[in-house]
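Need a sequence for this fold. Nothing fancy.
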């Protein structure tokens, strides 16, 4: 049985008799194996203490200690009473720690912020070093996890920042939401407090130590470092906003180090040798200090992961260049310019007008006289127009000009006024059937290329990224965010396919002599 298989079986077992607490139990187990503590924020009666008791059964010979704090709680109630006999006979101030916090595998402290300073200070050492100073000796304690809970967050003015910082994972624990689950909870016998874990599944101290060393060897890839840097930048930007001046998010270097080890633990328990982007969603639960920050840090984490989602590099440029060449070829083969322009004389009452007349009064020539001109010189009269009549003026030696719109007067060339009607138009031409067959073949080749891209992408998701949707500590739906780059790549492929089919459709529907507007 692999580590992941074992942890998966343990999670199934500890969820027996507990409803809608899968994520809370999974993260509690994760934090415990990472050697970290966890805090539950929620009202009474939502199974916070039950989760801690369930965790006790995970460890072979595990024991638990629970206590409801109040402002009158004393160290004796948490760490054990002072041994009167040792104080009397040996003059030693030692506590009897058996059945108290220093001897427990799992500890649950409810309403923890009501603990007094002496208890808080001792807890800091316990959480930091897993050691407890009892009299003149320092003892190693078997503590795997300290689970704390409250229906409120610590007040800023009570000096609780150091203790609050020790709880790496912070979770909101609510009552049951689903109506059917609620009906089950109030009507069925759930045996919630029973030990449902077989002895062979329980984690031994030897396993725990072995796993701890292996966790420290888990690799951290560059994209995970990048995600963390982006999150830190988002937090800096959040803190710089005026409206967040009194609502700062502070993450110490020590806390970041613990977060990374938590990610390594997740990777190890999922049978991987390196952290992946799905593990990074756990960071959500490690950053907020106030409940009002939860949505913001969730967006920071999701945004950073989406930015560094897994991607495949395809040579889209080469394919797009080929398509551009293909479109140019089709255009040259199926479109041509047809010039329908016609130049004609501008005629006024049987007279043609010269563009650059020899004088203001020698502007017009009779239509029928102009048409009779030859290369031989002959005398003609030019006319001028006054009101609506034309009057004869000077006589010139004339002959035909260099083209039908020109005339030579006294050996000088003149052009008559004309107008151009019609236009140049783009006209379609249906491709030859053999050419069209060749183009169809090329279209099929391009579509084969895009289908190959899609097959590679799908194979990458199903093989190389298969583990994304089987992470024991992250919702499988979050894999969509991790794969966002792949989704964008698929969209790019589909856009190219649409373009290829449009090219084919355009040349298929072409007809001869259709004017292109």
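Here you go.
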């Amino acid at each position: 049985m692999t580590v992941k298989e074992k942890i998966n079986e343990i999670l199934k077992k500890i969820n027996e008799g507990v409803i809608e607490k899968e994520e809370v139990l999974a993260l509690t187990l994760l934090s415990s194996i990472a050697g970290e503590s966890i805090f539950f924020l929620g009202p009474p009666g939502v199974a916070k203490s039950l989760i801690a008791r369930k965790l006790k059964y995970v460890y072979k010979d595990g024991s638990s200690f629970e206590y409801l704090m109040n402002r009158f709680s004393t160290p004796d109630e948490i760490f054990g009473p002072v041994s009167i006999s040792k104080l009397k006979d040996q003059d030693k101030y030692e506590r009897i720690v058996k059945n108290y916090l220093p001897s427990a595998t799992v500890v649950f402290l409810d309403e923890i912020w009501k603990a007094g300073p002496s208890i808080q200070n001792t807890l800091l050492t316990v959480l930091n070093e897993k050691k407890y100073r009892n009299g003149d000796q320092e003892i190693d304690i078997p503590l795997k996890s300290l689970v704390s809970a409250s229906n409120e967050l610590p007040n800023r003015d009570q000096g609780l920042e150091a203790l609050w910082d020790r709880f790496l994972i912070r979770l909101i624990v609510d009552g049951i939401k689903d109506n059917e689950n609620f009906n089950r909870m109030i009507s069925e016998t759930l045996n919630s407090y029973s030990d449902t874990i077989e002895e062979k599944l329980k984690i031994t101290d030897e396993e725990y130590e072995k796993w701890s060393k292996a966790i420290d060897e888990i690799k951290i890839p560059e994209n995970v470092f990048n995600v963390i840097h982006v999150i830190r930048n988002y937090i800096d930007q959040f803190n710089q906003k005026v409206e967040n001046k009194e609502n700062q998010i502070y993450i110490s270097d020590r806390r970041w180090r613990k977060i990374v080890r938590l990610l390594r633990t997740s990777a190890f328990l999922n049978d991987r040798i390196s952290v992946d982007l799905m593990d990074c969603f756990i960071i959500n639960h490690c950053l907020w200090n106030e409940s009002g920050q939860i949505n913001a840090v969730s967006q920071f984490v999701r945004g950073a992961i989406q930015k560094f989602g897994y991607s495949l590099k395809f040579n889209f440029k080469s394919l797009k260049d080929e398509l551009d060449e293909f479109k140019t070829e089709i255009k040259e083969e199926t479109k041509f310019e047809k010039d329908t322009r016609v130049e004609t004389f501008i005629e006024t009452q049987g007279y043609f007008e010269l563009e650059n007349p020899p004088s203001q009064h020698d502007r017009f020539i009779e239509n029928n006289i102009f048409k009779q001109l030859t290369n031989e010189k002959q005398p003609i009269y030019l006319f001028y127009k006054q009101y609506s009549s034309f009057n004869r003026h000077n006589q010139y030696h004339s002959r035909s000009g260099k083209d039908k719109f020109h005339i030579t007067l006294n050996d000088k060339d003149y052009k008559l006024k004309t107008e151009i009607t019609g236009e140049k138009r783009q006209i379609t031409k249906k491709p030859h059937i053999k050419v069209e067959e060749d183009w169809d073949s090329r279209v099929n080749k391009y579509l084969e290329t895009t289908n190959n891209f899609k097959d590679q992408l799908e194979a990458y998701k199903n093989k190389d990224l298969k583990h994304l949707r089987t992470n024991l500590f992250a919702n499988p739906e979050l894999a969509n965010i991790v794969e966002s780059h792949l989704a964008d790549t698929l969209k790019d492929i589909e856009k190219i396919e649409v373009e290829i089919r449009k090219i084919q459709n355009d040349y298929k529907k072409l007809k001869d002599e259709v004017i292109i507007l």
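For context: The mean pLDDT is 91.
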